[in-house]
Amino acid sequence: MVFFEENDLLSRFKYDQKIRKLNNEITYYEKEIAQSNRKMLELQSSNENLEKFAREQYLMKKANEDIFIIED
Question: What is the pTM of this model?
């Protein structure tokens, strides 16, 4: 049972590591989903937020404006 079976200690240890890794991924993606939902609600709540997002993410502008991109 310790070394030669399908459920030996080494396999058990590997499975436990994989479970921990997957649980960490679940936590990470749950946080990402919550953050995305907050952003979506913020964008849907007002046109000003939607305009700000479009300007920052997609470099959209009004007809009479110029855009300057400053990189660090």
Answer: 0.62
